[in-house]
Amino acid sequence: MSDEDDLEDFEPDQDDLEREDDEKETEEWEDYRKEGDESEDWISTPLTEDMMKEGLSLLCKTGNGLAHAYVKLEIKDRDLTDILLLRSYIHLRYVDVSENHLTDLSPLNYLTHLLWLKADGNQLRSARLNELPYLQIASFAYNQITDTEGISHPRLASLDLKGNRIHMVTGLDPQKLISLHTLELRGNQLNSTLGINLPKLKNLFLAQNMLKKVEGLENLSNLTTLHLRDNQIETLSGFSKEMKSLQYLNLRGNMVADLGELAKLRDLPRLRALVLLDNPCTDENDYRQEALVQIAHLERLDKDFYEEEERAEAEEIRQRMKEEQEQEPEAEPESELDQSST
């Protein structure tokens, strides 16, 4: 099957990586939340052949090359409660069933050629599906999903679970999710970062949860972008030199009060951009300077790049601190001798 190559190397650009600053998305999340809370019983509205005719597009050759079939389906915002009919449309590769009232996606198990799936804004309590061999991009945002079990698609590169009700990440098997490089878990109820042991991961979005610390991410050696905005993080323990690719770290809107915590980021060899706005430590007068003293290779703090003058000053401070530390061990024996002679 050749079309799976169309979605390879799907990467968000830097604007996407900064998208948490967009207030509209927070409002969108709240709207979905209200909708989901208000409506429990929906009038049964199954998918019909007429709806299929309206939503189908993109005529392509089937696998054997001897026939043609429509491979794209968009049936957004139709108040659907049932997509059982999809079991017959086995050639579908791109499916958008967003903004309906679906509680069950099991008919999609028959779509073994599926490349792209969007099921945002439904009533789903699980993202569980059989292993779909070609699925590369899947979005289940703004549902009522409570766990991450049953997601095991070998070519899945991007998984979006933002705006759900997930408390703990479980069941994400690195032996099965061998292609996953972008994981979006913003706006859930996570109280731990454990369970995200996915070595191929490059982009991890964990903003707007209930996290107090970072743990279990030490072996994410390919991670380049980590968003932890709007949590309750007080300590910066949990980062290690094994996170050798991490370049962008967003900790805005947390509870880091001690500037000394920044020393724990010193071992991140490629960290270039750090966002700490709206943390108590940013109220300190020497906050900007102290960050550069602790993390010499930092290029940008919050929204501003460091100037050469700031770099020179930080280097002077580091040298002075180093000299003081070298002198301290010599001073201790002298004081002991003085004490023994008195």
From TrEMBL:
What is the scientific name of the source organism? Answer: Rangifer tarandus platyrhynchus
Q: Where is the composition biased (Basic and acidic residues)?
A: 314-324
Whether Methyltransferase counts among this entry's keywords is no
Task: Note the InterPro entries from the entry.
Answer: Leu-rich_rpt, LRR_dom_sf, SDS22/Internalin_LRR
Q: Which domain of life is it from?
A: Eukaryota
- Native organism taxonomy: Eukaryota, Metazoa, Chordata, Craniata, Vertebrata
Enumerate the residue ranges of region (Disordered): 1-44, 305-342
Read off the SMART domains from this record. LRR_SD22
Q: Does this entry carry the keyword Repeat?
A: yes
Which terms are listed as keywords in the entry? Answer: Leucine-rich repeat, Repeat
What name does this protein carry? Leucine rich repeat containing 23
Q: Where is the composition biased (Acidic residues)?
A: 1-30, 325-342
